[in-house]
Design goal:
176 residues, alpha/beta, Double Stranded RNA Binding Domain, Arc Repressor Mutant, subunit A, two-stranded parallel ribbon
């Protein structure tokens, strides 16, 4: 039996709460303050032990991301056991969206193997337990509008995209 561990720390744009085991990261909460992180993680902490040392590499990847190296998040192993198949496919497809670029929910559904399931792709993003690492902030409406972002709202989604675009020195990397 593997023991869940957790760690809460500050990053340049807020606070993150990390929960994981020997299988990888099982949850990442990204919120403006530590109280909201604790509330968001809720029962995930019930049987977890605080252990900052277990997350040294993950925290390093997050710091590198916020310092302009968005590919650093690709190094983080995720524990996807028990994830509904379509969600897993949508999350995997989402991780292929290059930093600073955006894709529509329709694109995401198609990449996940269900081209008519844009709403289901939206649900997969809404239930994403790995904010930042599965970059749901890069998924937008087909008309280009920013839509919900549970890890801090639309202003945080916009800031993340601006940060990534600045890091890429990209003028317009938007695709449908």
């Amino acid at each position: 039996m593997t023991t869940d561990r957790y760690h809460i720390c500050q990053v340049s744009m807020g606070w993150v709460g990390l929960v994981g085991s020997d299988f990888g990261l099982s949850r990442l909460s990204f919120k403006p303050n530590p109280q909201e992180v604790l509330e968001d993680l809720g029962s995930a902490l019930d049987h977890a032990t605080e252990d900052a040392g277990s997350f040294t590499d993950t925290v390093s990847c997050l710091e590198r991301y916020f310092q302009g190296e968005p590919g650093a998040l690709d190094e983080i192993d995720l524990d996807l056991r028990g994830v509904p198949p379509f969600f897993g496919e949508a999350w995997t497809a989402c991780r292929t969206i290059p930093p600073g670029e955006t894709r529509s929910y329709a694109w995401l559904a198609s990449e996940a193997g269900r081209p008519l399931a844009a709403r289901a792709a939206g649900q997969a993003m809404a239930k994403n337990p790995y904010a930042l690492i599965i970059p749901c902030h890069r998924v937008i409406a087909s008309n280009g509008d920013l839509r919900g972002y549970g890890a801090g709202g639309l202003s945080v989604k916009a800031k993340l995209l601006q940060m990534e675009q600045k890091d890429n020195n990209s003028a317009d990397n938007t695709h449908s």
